[in-house]
Amino acid sequence: MRTIYLFLFTATLALTGCEKDSGSMEEREERDPNVISGQKFMEEGNFDAAIEEFKRALEQEPMMARPHLDLALIFQQHKINYIHALYHYDRYLELRPNAEKADFINNQKHKVAQALANTFINNSPDVKKVVQERNTLIQQNNELKRQLAAALRNAPAPTAKTQQTAAPTTTEPSVTKTVPKSATPAVEAQTVSKGSRHHVYHVVSGDTLSKISTKFYGDSGKYDIIYEANKDMMRNPGDLKVGQTIVIPIIGN
Could you list the residue range(s) of the whole structural domain that residue 49 is in? Predict the structure, then answer.
């Protein structure tokens, strides 16, 4: 029994000593001759020699963590090799998961990963081409949206107020629309300002330029007149969207 107690007491002392040593492990590693030599070479700007010293330290003691941190910094900032930098940052965190530097190291890993991604993009013609095409499409889409918004601002849309006050109060003759008898209620709802040379029309479901041409001109073959008047916002005669505002030129009685 006395032998068992002695063994437990010895084991407790050993564990206590290990915990104490663990707290100062980083300091002990920084006093390693190869680590000291490597850090001195880093200060002098001799990074190749510093790399050799840190590697030598790891060969002698593979469980050392500090050399990995110094190697990661060298490969990130001086002897650029982002894959090596990520490896040494990860290896340091594996050996020192509770290190005070963990937040700093994770931040550096994020920066290295971004730099590595940019390197792949810039060095790969195919990937670079895809990124450029994507940026071009985004710019073109934004420009189309701007043009459409400008066209909608310039086109007077019918309102309840303008319809109620449509009757003239002067002795001048009233202005009426020249809408074919075959026009549908959707067309009848449009208004024309005095002296205007266009109708304003809002596209509804099922509309085509041919159908709209029939509504206004009584002739589906005159759809090209409508297309020419609106081609700045239409890629082709079939490019119609529900709710889109277009203008219909007045071509006579």
Answer: 32-125
